[in-house]
Structures are given as structure tokens and as C-alpha cells.
Amino acid sequence: MKRLALAFLLLAAIPATAPAKPPKPAPPSREETRTAKPLPPVSVEDRLPDVYGEIVQRLMHRGPADTLGDGLFALAEQSFHEGRFDEATARYGEFAQRFTRNLRVTVALERALMIRDCRDFDDEPLKIYARAEELRLSGQADSAAAALTAGLARHPGARLRWHFRFAIAEIARDKGNHAAAIEQALAVADTSAGSRLAPYALRLAGDETLASGGAPEKAAGYYQALLERFPDSPLAPAVRAQVLLLRKRMQL
Q1: Alpha carbons 167 and 172: distance in angstroms, whole number
Q2: Mean pLDDT across the chain
């Protein structure tokens, strides 16, 4: 027993030694740094939680070149809304030339054409339209509609009259006033109008007919008119699919 107790005392007297730390790795040499392989890319699923999935999918459709130049486009829009149309035209043109892959190039070109072709009545209708659009963007749709309606009454023959009517149709659509939206859209789509907005107006008329609970045959008629009059319109593929879907539903 005395020997056992003495052995325990000797063991207790020996200090505990910490485990040896592994040596630090030597820093890579310059040659290793130059030849090092890049790390494999991390997938979106590994970096972001599932709650952001939908947002990520939307953003993945736009590459860096799709948004490059947005600042210049914003400056052009500001010049337009403030009535500085010559400056706006120059900025739209520069934007379209420099940033051909930006998704807003078509908008910039359309805007430049509008300014070029619609400067009658000393730019007054153009100023009204620009002001109304600014009001819409700031959430004052009723004020925008009032300005456009007054502009139509003051300048019924203005070259921008179809743009006025289409904007009024969109405002009516957004407020759920289907009848007014269809009325204004059909005025824009009239064959005698010759407006570049006609295919968009026909689609709006068809969409609003369905939204108001109208006959699918009537909506299909507006869509079919779009396809026959404007077969090369960028709207044609989606509208063609909509017509096929409506026909299937009408056969059931």
C-alpha cells in the first residue's frame, strides 16, 4: 500500500505536457504562387440561402454588359423629363452607341425617334408627355392622366396624340378601369392612326378584355389582328402562344 501511494504521489508531481503544435506551413514560394491553380467556383446555392433563389435567378439573366451604361441612360432620362430635348437626344445616342448590349438600348432609340418626330407646337406636347411620365414614375398617376387629357384637348392634332392615348390606357389599366383602357387602346390601334404603338395597343386591348371577363373570342380577335398586321413584332411569339391557349380553352 505504501508503494502504491508513493507511485500516485510521483505521478501527481509530474507536470502535464501540452500536445505538440503542428509546425506552421511555410509560405508559398513565388514560383508556387505563379503556378497555383485557381479554386473551383462556388455555386450560387452554396453562397446564398434558398430565400434568395428567385432574386438570383432573375439577376442571372443579366450579365455585366446588360447593365453597363445605366448611369448615362438615367442622365438622358433626366434631361428628357426636364424638357432639355436636344441634350437628351445626344445622351440617348451616345448611350445606344457605347452600350449596345444594355437592355435599354431599344428604349433609348425609341425615345430619340420620338423627340425627332414630335417637336410640333413648339415642343409643347412633348413637354406635356415628359411631365406626365415623370408624374407616373413618382406615383401620381391621376395627375399624369389629367395632364395628358388636357394636352389632347389643347393639341388634338399633335403627333404625340397616340402616345398620349396609350399612356392614358395604361393608367386606366393599372387602376382596373378596363373599359377606358380598351377604348383608348383601340383608338391607338386603329389602322388610320398609323402609330408605332398599334401592336402594343392591340395586345393591351386583348389583355384587358380577358381581365374584364369579356368573351375570349373577342380577345383572340385583337390578338389575331396583331399577328396579321405586325407579324414581325417582338410581341408576336408570346401573343401567338396566347391565341393557341385561348383556342384550346374555347374548344373545351
Answers
A1: 9
A2: 82
- Domain map of the chain by residue range? 63-117
- Phi and psi at 118, nearest 5°, equal -125, 50
Cα distance from N-terminal residue to C-terminal residue, the chain: 100
Question: Is the per-residue pLDDT at 58 higher than 90?
Answer: no
pTM: 0.72
209: left (phi over 0), alpha (psi -120 to 50) or beta: alpha
In sequence order, which ranges of the chain are alpha helices (DSSP H)?
2-13, 30-35, 44-47, 53-60, 64-67, 70-81, 85-98, 105-117, 124-137, 141-154, 161-174, 178-189, 198-211, 216-229, 236-251
Q: What DSSP string describes 83-146? A: T-HHHHHHHHHHHHHH-TTSTTHHHHHHHHHHHHH---GGGHHHHHHHHHHHHHHTT-HHHHHH
Grid cell of 235 as nine digits = 410581341
Please give the Cα distance from 194 to 184 (Å, whole number): 15
State the helix-helix crossing angle for 105-117 and 85-98, rounded to 10 degrees. 150
**What counts of helices (H) and strands (E) characterise the chain?**
15, 0
